[in-house]
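Re: beginner question about structure tokens

> Can someone show what the tokenized structure looks like for a real chain? I only ever see the sequence side.

Sure, here's an example I had lying around. Input first:
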Amino acid sequence: MDKNDNYKMILKLMLRLLPIQVLFVFVGMINGIVSTYFATNYVGIDAMSAVGLYGPINMFIQAVGTIFVGGSAIVCGKYIGQNNRKEVTSTFSVDMVITFCIAIFFTIVLLVLGFYDLTGIFTNDPNVRPLFNVYLIGQAIGILPFLLGNQFSVFLSLENKQRLSVIASTVFIAVNIAFNYLFVQVMQLQAFGLALAGSLGMLIFCLIEGSYFVSGKSYIRFSLSILKASQAKEIFTKGLPGALTYIYMTVRGFAVNGLLTTYVGSVGISAFAAANNLMSLFWAIPSGMQAVSRLLLSIGIGEEDKKTLTNVMRVMFKVYISMHMVVVAAIILLSKPLTNIFFHDPLEPVYMMTVWGLRILPLCMPFAIITMHFTSYAQASGKNVLVNILSLFDGVLGVVICSALLIGKVGMNAVYIANVLNGIIDIIIILLYAIIQNKHVPHNMEELMVIPKDFGVNEDDVISFTVKTLDEVTSVAEKIQNFCKERGVDSKRSMIAGLAMEEMAGNVITHGFTKDKKKHSIDIKAIHKNDDVILRIKDDCIAFDPNTRNSIDDQDDPTKNFGIRMIYKIASEVNYQNILGLNVLTLKI
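And the corresponding structure tokens:
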């Protein structure tokens, strides 16, 4: 397949998946934004301080959840690339059991801290501490649905069930706002109402998404019978490096709060919390970009496909960053109107502190997009040294060191500027890693990503091309046959391989291309490996499992579905899956 065709397919897929992934992240962020709005407008600055103090705790809980969100996504992506459904289901089952146990643990911890007033390590302010205690109790109720909901979102993406996710997300946003109005403004439950509203909203979100996996309709199912406890280690190992950033960010949160308390005062914590919570709405976009790319990078590694890996990064540099620069400019231009959502008096110090946060913090986002993508790739490909270094600097050292050096001279803005400097440091680390590994400045994307020379099959042992019209189908068999013969494959298998791919390509165009008015294409690949001929056909039409037609034998018309039945007879192995909205059929001849 032409490099440009592969790039276009990856671009189309990444843009199509992006909105729903952004929505996933947005759901997790909206609770903080809504809580901040009701805290500043209906409870007071002390409640805002309670929300800010909970930030590092929430970050740590999210970090632990991210270990299994990221780890399960990477492991599943690998097994999906290998067409191993049993291992995918086992991964899902292990992930669900571990997540449930972790959620129960955190729930108990928060309840104990809140009920027994053990929060002195966080604050001794007599006005803030009681609010913080009840806020923890309210948050505890939502820990289980929060962590499970994050896991469900990943697997629903793999199942291509975006519609259910949209429904769950829309319902969550609506009920979260309604519950906040009821509990905070009407019932005046103050900080407890803020937390309870988000927890109950997340419970409803989780139930809607989880219903699909107990309906019996899902491809990935929960099964204790095939659960392999040993997979927990693989999930944890793959997920930990990427989650280290969040763990470090927990430390960073406590450190920054300490610096602000010492040099600026509690008003600095309130301003920083307000700016951060509002920025979290826009951080949903880079996080959604990372989620899409992480899945594609994992599948590319499972398929040992260099083109997919490099083109994911090219789309990130050319399209994702360009798109987000528009968002960055909008945030900066609207910094004052956005601040007015929470604070209304320009003469109050907290007002301009928040405004400057919204003017400076967005500048770190383009750097963060690059860092997030390279971290995901390094995590999936086992480059743990790079992941650990990036996690340490991006998560804690960069921001804390720069903040500590600047805050005495610059004041509150030092914390914001430190985030931008941190992004620049991350890019330097990525480039230095590539230079050290290649022993020279990288000349192309493969070298920048440090893809091993022996990754995948040799270029001479693979052929790939794109088919867009029925006229092009006639050349499929000839291309595949010639490829096989040139590699010493016997004439019988060469002929079978060519006819099989021509038959399937013709079926896709005849039946798949005509189901809607969208433009479609077929990605065909043939690999010669260990004397096997592996054929893969991928298309972006509606889901179609050829196995359902293979089992149908029409007595009135024996020729119906004959082509599909023939392929199942001549192929030694046939695997079908619909992943990320793509039909993927793999044959072994």
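Each token stands for a local structural state, so reading them left to right follows the chain. Residues 154 and 535 are 28 Å apart (CA to CA).
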